[in-house]
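Model it.
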Amino acid sequence: MRALTITRYGPPEVLAIRESRDPVPGPGQVCIRVARAGLNFADVSARVGLYPDAPKPPVVMGYEVSGTVAALGEGVSSPPVGTRVLAMTRFGGQATHALADARYVLPLPDGMDLDQAAALPVNWLTAHHMLHRVANLRPGMTLLVHMAAGGVGLAAIGLARAVGGVSLFGTASASKHPVLREAGVDHPIDYRTQDYVAEVKRLTGGRGVDLALDALGGPEWARNTSVLAPGGQLICFGWANATSGESRNLLKVATGLATMKRWNALDLMSRNITVSGVNVGHLWSEAEMMRATLDALLALWREGKVRSHIDRVYPLEEGPAAHRRMHERKNVGKILFDCA
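Modeled.
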């Protein structure tokens, strides 16, 4: 087995290919011969040393893969060996072989290629969970999506379009606005040259939006509550701004924590707003809920309502280049690894 390994915390150059024996599935597990693996911002944060859930280096990251079933562990009878599948992996996905809990391994629908399969689990599951379980997105609502040209951002936009009748606002650099417009964003906002708070207020006649999705974190969480309409909801699902440099800056993290907005119930009551948090990685034990969301996404895929924008596919050996592209926020949509 070859695996993209974080050898120590630091810049993309700390990534290296390491070889080991192919993994053997334990009870309830499936071994997958990986064709494609997804790259997510959590992997970048883990490399820098700012993702507390990740094991310490050396570690192989990767939460989502597509490929074929290579072996079944004790107590697992399906999908049979040789079946093309997508799967969620709790680390270890960015390798030629990966182990997955059988509950998170799903056969590919007819017509789904391996790129689309690997791009679906994390981004689309996160977006669907936020829009349809934590919130209740309905026609007639207004939605603000930050980092809108990223994987989760474009997934949220796609799911909002599937609902229909949702007015969409999305922040991204100006070069990415054509992609946002094509995806269905009514009001792209260039966060580099425009104050998104003032722009959203202007575009909504001062009312604000019903729902905001924010993975930026830090002071932006407080700013986002100021763009909420009465009855509005902010969903916090990341702190990308903490990972601005290529190496860990604990002073910056400490400063961010010290200045981070804290809410109290009276404040939320008086403003009639809701603040929610989402970390899909902490829902791993909720297999029934997670599997139901994956099944719903596959149903939407069959209807043609779920399609990922693939930014680039990198050979596993080009892990540093893939990490740098995501870290510098140059990607539009999903970055994948070719692990075959």
